[in-house]
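S.,

Sequence below, as promised.
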Amino acid sequence: KLFFDGSKCQQGGGAGFVMIPPWGTPIPVAHKLNFECTNNMAEYEALVLGLQNAVNLGARHIDIFGDSELIVNQVTGVYQCKNDILQKYRDIVLAQLQSFDSFTIQSIPRTANRFADTMASLASLIPPFTEDSRLYVAVQRLDQPSYLGQLTSINAVTTHTQDEWYQQIVDYLSHSVLPPDLTSNGRRSFVQRANRYTILGGILYKRGFDGILLRCLKTHESSKAIQEVHD
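The prediction came back faster than expected:
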């Protein structure tokens, strides 16, 4: 399933989508649109980016949901597309849909699209940034009030023996670049694995089942850490 939404405000545009793969764990993504756009353009951007994510996951069937009747009806052909820019977006979407064996697309109430709407609104409200290609927002579960003294800490460490694999994860999270020569199943497995990681302050972390972020170390960093423990 793919839920998409776009947002345009004084601070700029935002495109958000939430992918819900067969294994059930939602994949929420927000994109800050650092260019002049209308709300309809932002909606289309969210749909295009979400479909590309689904292709990367190797999806063969996809159910698409959005709260923009205009976009949905333009894609299905119910409405004519008279705006030149929106027509280009629609053509991109129709070309992307050829990658799937089958698909459905339908308009839903905004109240049923709140997750994607939140991602789009968040991205639109963030001021434009140029230092990095991504800005990371960590949302963690807190099961008890902080005054009970059980705050989640970011202090666990996991190591990797192959820096190439480490860099592949970073490249995908930072630039959506997949490793070359992957099969369709290989791409799906890699994206599933990569989505368990996040980058905060330029450092790669793996999300643990208990909400703790596990810092990933390159080979030379892990060797140094082990040496410090022995010392």
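Residues 217 and 225 are 9 Å apart (CA to CA).

Coffee later?
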